[in-house]
Amino acid sequence: MSVLKKLRESRNLSYSGLADQIGVSSEEVKRWEEDASSISKDSLSSLAYYLGSSSEELQDMIEGNEPYLTTHPYYILGKGEADGWWGHFGLCLNGKKDSKWFPITLGQANKISNVLDNISSRDEWLIVETLNNRILVFRPTRVSRMWVLDDYADPPEEDWSPPWDGYSGNPSEFYKGLEEYCWLEGDWEDGGEGERSVSNTVIKAVETFTDVHDLDFEKIAELVLETQIYNVEGRTFSHIVEGSRLSELMFSADIGESVMMLNLSNEKFDFYIPSDNVALIDMPKRCVDKYIREERYFEEDENAN
Fold first, then answer.
1. If you average pLDDT over residues 44-61, what whole number do you get?
2. pLDDT (tens digit per residue) in 172-186
3. Structural contact between residues 242 and 234, judged by C-beta atoms closer than 8 angstroms
4. 228 near 215, Cβ under 8 Å?
5. What is the per-residue pLDDT across 155-174, written as a single tens digit (0 to 9) for each?
6. How far apart are CA 226 and CA 234, in angstroms?
7. What beta strand segments (E) does the chain contain?
8. Is there a contact between 245 and 264 (Cβ–Cβ < 8 Å)?
9. Inter-axis angle of helices 200-212 and 172-183, to 10 degrees?
């Protein structure tokens, strides 16, 4: 069974049901399932947006380069697994009154609980992937409190502020559209066809969202491009960090390697922060994913040659 057929049936959609959502004919959807190479770039973007993924992830899955596909907010397909939006993770930093809230899947909720129940070192890091384009890397012993909150539970009224983009976030393709909107400063037409990689469906969703929430380019950059580093006192530093630096940090934290110094340098300047002073690193997930994907393609090309 093709990946696209699995995704369509997982939503209990007929050919015409999915076609109506994407704005194409039923025959075209059927042709995609039989031959995924016939999908145009624009249709792939719309399809990824509706199914809750990104066009890059969906393309990789179709080509067999990924064992599973994360879809928002309901499913992860592959290896017989299913995971989806479960609730929220709340994290309060020292010196702060209110928690920062992030939508998470059941798998991430179980991971958080398991790590916190079995934490063995004050220097241990926890990595949490959220459904609103963030990856959290933090030391649990250096924050004030944490919540793992089922969506059916009553939120703590004195400490409940939903994420800026809603209760369960948005599809990855939406954040990709926000990035392009930011880089092109909303001028999709002058960006040129080579620059624009999201569909008209995504563009319309982004423009509507930015208008409703009165987001300017500076605010969008903060939300989708910048990494926020919070120190043990709750103070914040925002910086656009290269994907390679973020990926190295995640890998070191994941294998339990002692991270003495955070290297946030780029080609213009060297910049370091002692890890002992860091409570939380809140990084944009797409930035990390893009770097990992580019590295994989580079290694595949190297092996092929």
1. 88
2. 899 999 988 888 776
3. no
4. no
5. 898 899 988 888 877 888 99
6. 17
7. 69-70, 76-77, 85-92, 100-105, 126-129, 134-138, 145-150, 227-231, 236-239, 261-263, 272-274, 278-284
8. yes
9. 80
* The pLDDT of residue 223: 86
DSSP bridge pairs for 70? 76
Q: Both tokens of residue 41?
A: 């770039």
Token pair of 77 as six digits: 């397909």
Q: In whole angstroms, what separates CA 160 from the centre of its chain?
A: 22
Q: What is the pLDDT of residues 199-235, one digit of tens each?
A: 988 999 999 999 988 888 888 888 889 999 999 988 9
User: Which domains are delineated in the chain?
Assistant: 3-77 (1.10.260.40), 85-164+222-295 (2.30.30.600)
How many residues comprise the chain? Answer: 305
Q: Which residues pair with 127 in a beta bridge?
A: 137
Rounded CA-CA distance 299/305 in Å is 10
Coil, strand or helix at 41: helix
Q: Is the pLDDT of residue 4 over 80?
A: yes
Residues 6+ apart with CB under 8 A from 260: 274, 275
- The verdict on whether omega for the bond into residue 171 sits within 30 degrees of 0, i.e. cis, is no
Q: Mean of the per-residue pLDDT values for the chain?
A: 85
Residue 74: what pLDDT? 58
Binning the chain into helix, strand and coil, the percentages to the nearest 5 are 45, 20, 35
